[in-house]
UniProtKB/TrEMBL annotation:
Statement: the UniProt record of this protein carries the keyword Hydrolase: yes
Annotated ranges, domain GTP cyclohydrolase I: 21-181
Reaction it catalyzes: GTP + H2O = 7,8-dihydroneopterin 3'-triphosphate + formate + H(+)
Keywords, sorted A to Z: Hydrolase
One of the GO biological process terms: tetrahydrobiopterin biosynthetic process
Domain of life, source organism: Archaea
Keyword Transmembrane helix set for record: no
Molecular function as annotated in GO: GTP binding; GTP cyclohydrolase I activity; zinc ion binding
Protein name: GTP cyclohydrolase I
Amino acid sequence: MTQHSPLTQPDDDGIDREKAQRATRLLLEALGEDPDRPGLTETWERRVPDAFATLTDGQRREAKPTMRTFDAESDDLVVKTGIPFYSLCEHHLLPFHGTAHVAYRPGEAVVGLSKLARYVRWQSRQLTMQERLTNDVASGLVDELDAPMVLVEMNAIHLCEAMRGIETESTTTTRTAIGEPTDVEREQFRDAIARGEGQR
Ligand SMILES: Nc1nc2c(ncn2[C@@H]2O[C@H](COP(=O)(O)OP(=O)(O)OP(=O)(O)O)[C@@H](O)[C@H]2O)c(=O)[nH]1
Ligand SMILES: [Zn+2]
């Protein structure tokens, strides 16, 4: 069907490229398009399968960022706010995107700061719901860091709500805590988020 992949088996990036090509072609036909018109041939042959391979690599452990850690020197809360993320809603296959804030109380280790953002980006790349993604980020970080306490907040706009359906762009906030955050830690997390928002 294409020079990019003669195989029906999943490629290394985990998606069955020929199926994705056939499905995209079929969808274009269902929409009344001619998939063989010049502007669309590479769309089903290459671009859409490649895009979905990237946008779902959160399902593949091999794509997980390396979480380099260092010895912790204290158990003071580490907070990273304003991490952009892009995900796909499993109901409509449309994006939801926004900002994540994460905090953890170190156990034996702290992680390189950039890895928190990389981890959120990787986890976001799957068909999911915002609530589940928030929990996945938190439980994943607990496992990765062996951290006794993690807090995550995500704020997002869902394009399935903005572009169709209710046609309203509103922000959804989801939060989760794993472990037992103290009142002081919760306050530090809230303050850091508010400070970050003040700077934008
Ligand atoms: N809880 C939750 N709901 C979501 C998320 N993403 C999309 N939705 C909602 O999923 C629901 C799907 O509702 P359905 O009634 O099955 O589908 P629909 O007819 O397309 O719904 P409308 O969007 O209201 O037109 C909608 O209310 C969306 O707003 C998410 O991450 N979490
Ligand atoms: Zn949706």
